Amino acid sequence: MAIETTTQLDPASLVARILAELEANPAAQQMLLRAMLTNEFLGMPARLDAIEKDVAEMKIDIAALKSDVAALKSDMVEVKADVAELKTDMADVKNGVRYLIGSDLEVKLHRRARARLSQDLRLRRPEIMQSQLLEPTPDLARPVDEAYQSGIITAEQEERITETDLVLRAQRRGDPATIWIAVEVSATIDAHDIQRARETADALAAVFGTDTIAIVSGYWIDQRDQARANAADVVYVKVPADQLSERIFGNSSPQTQ
Among 125, 137, 194, 243, which residue is least crowded by beta carbons within 10 Å? Predict the structure, then answer.
């Protein structure tokens, strides 16, 4: 009996033959793919299409988000500018209020200084020689001018005297000698007020050759500036704060009487 033998094709020829058959039979292509690939792989093209669509939508959303962020940044810049302007306006308002209160305080002290200083410093016969409401009297203006012309005081010292809020002449109780008093007035006393009072008192001492007293007077002074005043031999005279001042400035910081 004759035995038939089957001739096997080499791999390259086999693959070429299979591809040729598949090209000739498209239906067989799908059957082969389903036989060789899992459902996950078969669904990959559809999933890739969905991913591409999602990425496109995400790009649109990101572009919109970037636009919103840019608009927000622009709004924040405007808000910061408005806040800065508001802070400036508030600072101007506070300075204006402080100026009004300080001016009101100077008027009050002009009216009450003699009685108040007589009581607090045990003075007698106090006379106001200069204030915001009173031009320097001849008893003050002439000696100051002569001292400047003679070189006893400098132009800066002469100007310091004329810019002082309140200058008085008085005597201590039990002592007939004349003393001069330099008073700087401010709602809240600070280092500049203390320095100005000290400089005026020193200039008056040079002009008149007598004892002088440097005073700062206001509603408040903190502990640090009180220590500065003590070190500079400057007396702090407290003026009781009225309701208006309390509402504006508060009373939260430590105060010294």
Answer: 243
